[in-house]
Amino acid sequence: MDYEMPPDERKQGFAILASTSVSYFVENFIRTAPSALMPILIEELGLTHGLGGLLVSSYFFLYALMQVPSGVLSDALGPRRTILGFTVFTIVGVFIFYLGHRLEILLVAQLLIGLGTSVFYINAVKIVSTWFSSGRRASAIGVLSATSGLGNFFAYIGFPLAMRLAWGWRGLYLLCSLLLVASFAANLFILRDRPHSEELDVPRRSPSIGRSFVRVIGERRMYPYLLGFVFSSFSWVFMSWLPQFLVDTRGFSYIDAGLVSSVATIMGIPGCILIGLISDHLKRRKLPLVAFSLAYTCLLAGFLALPGWMPLPLFAAVAACIGFSVSLWVLSFSMVPETLPPDMAGMGLGLLNGIGNLAFSLVAPVYGFLVDSSGSYLTSNAMLILGGVLMTVVYALFTRETYGGVGEP
């Protein structure tokens, strides 16, 4: 949508961006909570590293599987209805997690939360893409995506502070759960699928999931993005295990480990925004995608080589650079709609997000099991570095420039 919108519709677009951003902040706080709490939950529940990884990744089991259907639901019901309907599952899940005191209960809660949040990002991207022109689209999606870093930051720094202040982790978790309910109410009144009032929230005929899936799979232009996003998910594994890694191998306290992890995640905010702005300014997608992929891989290797006696600010500084550069993933969500025809974009985004999260859900517990079996993090971290190398190679050699694309085959 590249025409000049009336002022009232521009205001509505920014209101939608603000509302979805608040929701995405809360969802990422909730998603990151088990990772930020891993040192506490391992001790509180007597978990092994492998079971700790399973608890973190269980969120992504249904989340990943729902990505393909979420694109179809978006096309059939509209993004607004899809977001609102599934948020109910999220609300139920977070209160079960808050009340849970056994691993089995927390796993059930994680599955429900994963199911509920599974449709949000793809549908939010579709709404935001509709309300912003191509010259502002990557920047708007960058703002939305940046709130993921803010949610992660508050989880990593908030839970250690809550423990120190004797609130306990459940008090902070409850507070954010109530914010989720408030954001649901806001979305109910603010979200609109499209700018034209006469077309708002009109149900559409549901396309065949199988047929839509086959069409997207048949698009070979998607393959580099899918494979690159699989390797990109290894960076999420690093972020998820970072607090426990620092506690186990560098002798960090829970507070210090949370500080370094929170710095890494907070830099995802300017990372998502600025990488989107850089891409829009350069009018290129591939160059920043490859450049930041290479930067992330080099920084990751350097961070993992830092000895424990190095000063805390150095760990925080390198982690901050990693958090910034790993925000390159936001470009993939601009490039797919610029690659596929409009009627395939929802399915394409769903498949991209699904395969990345499925890869994470498999790799995160493998990382923990390798730590348990080997007694060290050496093999696990080598796996993460290899993922970064392969991601860079795939993006550099096999992706094509998409800026300005209108999704024409």
List keywords for this structure.
single chain; 409 residues; mainly alpha; Growth Hormone, Chain: A; 0% strand
Task: Specify the biggest β-sheet.
Answer: none
First CA to last CA: what distance?
Answer: 19 Å
The number of E-state strands comes to 0
Mean pLDDT: 85
Number of helices: 18
Helix fraction by DSSP (H/I, runs of at least 4)? over 70%
Order of helices and strands: HHHHHHHHHHHHHHHHHH
Q: How big is the Rg?
A: 20 Å
Basic shape: globular
* Proportion of residues in extended strands: under 5%
The CATH superfamily is known as MFS general substrate transporter like domains
CATH level 1 name: Mainly Alpha
Specify the structural class: mainly alpha
The low-confidence runs, each spanning 5 or more residues with pLDDT under 50, are none
> In the residues, how many domains can be counted?
1
**Which fold name is given in CATH as the topology?**
Growth Hormone, Chain: A
Architecture in CATH?
Up-down Bundle
3D structure, described in words:
This protein is an all-alpha fold and 409 residues long. The protein has one domain: Up-down Bundle (Growth Hormone, Chain: A). 80% of the residues lie in helices and 0% in strands. It is built from 18 helices and no strands. The two termini are 19 Å apart.
